[in-house]
Amino acid sequence: MYYFSDAFEAIFANNNLCRKFIEASPDAIVITDIEGNVLAGNSRAAQLFGYVEKSFFPPNVNDCYKSSEDRKRIIDMLANDGLVQDFQTVVLDRAGKPISISLSASVMSVGEHDIHISILRDISERKKNEIALRDGEKNARLNETRFEALYSLAGMGEAPLKELYDSALEAAVKITGSEIGYIYFISDDESELSIYAWSHNVMPQCSVEYVPGSYHVSATGLWGDAVRQRRPIIVNDYENCEDKKGLPQGHVSIRRHMNVPLFDNGKIVILIGVGNKEEEYDEEDVRQLSLLADGMLNIVRRKEADAALRHAYSEMEEKVEKRTEELSSALADLRLVNKEMANEVDQRRVAEKKLRLFKRLVELSPDMVALVNSKYTYVMVNDSYVRLFDKPKDFFIGKSIFDVAGKEVFHVHSRTLIDSVLAGSTGRFESWVELPRLGKRFFSVVYHPVESTVDGERLVSITAHDISVQREMLEEVKRLASTDHLTGTNNRRSFMKRAEIEFDRLERYGGELYLMMLDIDHFKNINDTYGHNVGDVVLKEFVSCCISTLRTSDVFSRVGGEEFAALLIHGSVKDAQMVAERLRKSVENMEVRAGQHVVKLTVSIGLAVVSKKSNVETILKRADKCLYQAKAEGRNRVVSYCTESE
What we know:
It is a single chain. The protein is of the alpha+beta class. 44% of the residues lie in helices and 25% in strands. The chain contains 19 helices and 24 strands. A 6-stranded antiparallel β-sheet has the order 1-3-2-6-5-4, with helices on both faces. Strand 11 (257-264) and strand 12 (267-275) form a beta hairpin. The longest helix has 58 residues, at 283-340. It starts with a strand and ends in a 5-residue tail after the last strand.
């Protein structure tokens, strides 16, 4: 034993085995009386608490606990239960340094004495690892929250505008780590700011008696600089900022501040700001807030069309589901009747009665509902067939699906699905189909088995719901998602998707493919000289010139502000260079008239050949390199990069 008191000697005088066991333990062991006075401790305990010399070993353990409440709980458990297991607490070593331990203790009677034997295991490293793990998880969640917040607004197409703006504002506060935030709307002439909303935790802190609904930009302090300077503004030391005009009495205190103007067609339409981040604001905060604000504005633009489409689609799905449930319920009734009447002589009569009930039910459905047999001929149709085809019911009975719906519907869809349903499953398809006399329609069609028979023939129910209008709306939304809203040409996402297809085709089948990057020379000067409205007209006319000059097989798109890209499909290197030069000359000869202004412009072009096993990003960089070379050589020229060795 490393340390033992006279009392320990008296108690364990004849128990040398116990003393050896305690000293050999890999864990720290301390023996005390019920008052906490130390009777003995092994070498591991001395190492744990830093008592190198025996004379310094503490006489009592009560003061070694960081929390007196923990010590009291341990004493209470020993007094009540006689045992403590894996109790986690913090003790202090000789220098006062905290040590996290797991303590197990028990009461032992030795002669007339009760003693406490405590086993202490150092879990400091485990605690540090747990804290590090929690901190890592916290940082990961924060990073994940930042990215998720940028996309969460995309799912709010059906929400009211106020809820959308409020959610965007709270997301802005959250992703920047701020305490407060606000949104102001800007008048058309950019002279007046109108308050729209403060973040939810601002108003309880604000005791300003009068809050104006609007402010003149010229009269605002530094928070209006973002509008006046038309760029994001960061102030990380508001208290010592010389440009501030101060805060009204009762206003929430400001330590740090950042706001970003949001542009729409060259005009500032919204000012969004945040404040009082614990750390300093930086350019990453500006980027995150700008992305969030841009996403919010795009959602507002698409909101009405998207909401209308989702509403129509939702109604359609609800109706289809409801009608399917009704038909399923009717079919379930028929199956139940078949089971109940399986051993009865009048099974056929009852089944036919249920079938007539089914027919009456489907007559109420606005969808096209029919029963067909295993020979693919109609046994029954509802009134929707009569209305849609303008034919009486007798026209359909006994005719095959081939005769009524046409060759495509029968061979591509119906025959296979009917065979599958008769084998015991349920089938469905959604597709554009060409129907005789009706033309092209988009149907959602469900095939269900019917256990009842007619003249011994097994039946299949077919429910067809015409959703042509909703499908056309959905396809229009998809088209808008792949189109640049200003110029009407392909956007970057559409171009990258088409480029991947063409690169894959080149890899599979060979051929020739070229990628061309275009950048309007000195476009910033056009915007600065004539204004963004004229700049927008120049972009539109430039796109029109490029599309009319390029071949119909080529793919053209806007990939950035004044940057454009084109895929030249087929042709030789010489052909590609001729196309690029012809396009350059066409742009050089352009005169864009916008009001009283006549704008001349030129374009720099980088041309790169696409080789097998190359990827889109590599070729884009290669074409960009040529474009930058064209800029460096004086602009208004074509620089080719047409071989691997170049």
